[in-house]
Design goal:
It is a single chain. The protein is α/β, with parallel strands linked by helices. It is built from seven helices and twelve strands. The strands form two sheets. Strands 3-2-1-4-5-12 form a six-stranded parallel sheet, with helices on both faces. Strands 6-11-10-7-8-9 form a six-stranded parallel sheet. Helix 2 crosses helix 3 and helix 5 crosses helix 6.
């Protein structure tokens, strides 16, 4: 059996490692998009880096490499590749499983403001604060560069710097860091930069959740961008352990 994992997440790495142990006779390939310099690699199976060339390219790869199961363990906001995976899996007649970590849930003391998109989040900011901690990644920075945000100051955190020529908000300070982050560290970021509003995607997981607790402690409003939907008809599991259970033991019936 050949399992292709569309990875790049903590859950994708964990899944590859679990399969290496729990399904040792299975052939496992993890595919990383290559958008982050120095990606963290899984500890089990083969790894390929780079895109497939759209739906047609992924369909051909599934057929050429005789993939028996495709697992989409990409970031919850990697909408394009998720829909490409659904189309390619259907075309190649390969079963598809989506691994999605649970989203965050507000608790007592949170001041959350949901937004349907990055653009909607940007439009919400002027009424909430003036010094923004932007944690939505480098690929969405241009959504905050419109005229409505020219009086705001942004602390924009990402793993890698934005590509040259990317439109940025007029007043932006880049903070290049990779999670996981600690509560004490997030407290210091909010304090030292005098942050009064936080923007985040609903990525879920523990690695970047401490910023939410730090914002709650300081009474800072949080703009939360909602996740895109999983393609219709795709089975979803919420943990690598559940995904492993969906992978048949090679040779079993």
């Amino acid at each position: 059996m050949h399992v292709l994992i569309l990875g790049g997440t903590t859950e994708g790495r964990r899944l590859a490692e679990l399969l290496h142990t729990a399904r040792p006779r299975a052939r496992v390939t993890s595919s990383l998009a290559g958008r982050v310099a120095g990606p963290r690699l899984p500890g089990g199976g083969a790894v390929r880096i780079g895109g497939f060339g759209g739906v047609e390219g992924l369909t051909a790869w599934l057929r050429d490499h005789r993939v028996d199961l495709l697992i989409d363990a990409t970031h919850p906001f990697a909408e394009t590749i998720s829909f490409h995976a659904a189309e390619a899996a259907a075309a190649a007649h390969v079963p598809l499983l989506a691994l999605r970590r649970p989203g965050w849930v507000p608790t007592a003391g949170d001041d959350w403001h949901e937004a349907a998109s990055l653009e909607a989040a940007a439009a919400t900011l002027p009424r909430l604060g003036r010094r923004v901690f932007l944690t939505t990644g480098r690929l969405g920075l241009s959504s905050f560069a419109g005229p409505g945000t020219d009086r705001l100051w942004f602390l924009a955190r990402s793993v890698d710097p934005p590509a040259p020529g990317t439109p940025l908000p007029a007043r932006t300070h880049l903070l290049l860091e990779r999670g996981p982050f600690t509560l004490e560290g997030e407290r210091e970021v909010l304090r030292s930069h005098r942050i009064d509003v936080l923007v985040t995607k609903d990525s879920g997981g523990a690695a970047t959740a401490p910023k939410l607790a730090a914002a709650r402690e300081r009474g800072i409003p949080v703009v939360v961008v909602r996740r895109p939907p999983v393609p219709d008809g795709v089975r979803v599991v919420s943990s690598p352990e559940q995904a492993v259970e969906a992978v048949p033991v090679p040779g079993s019936r």
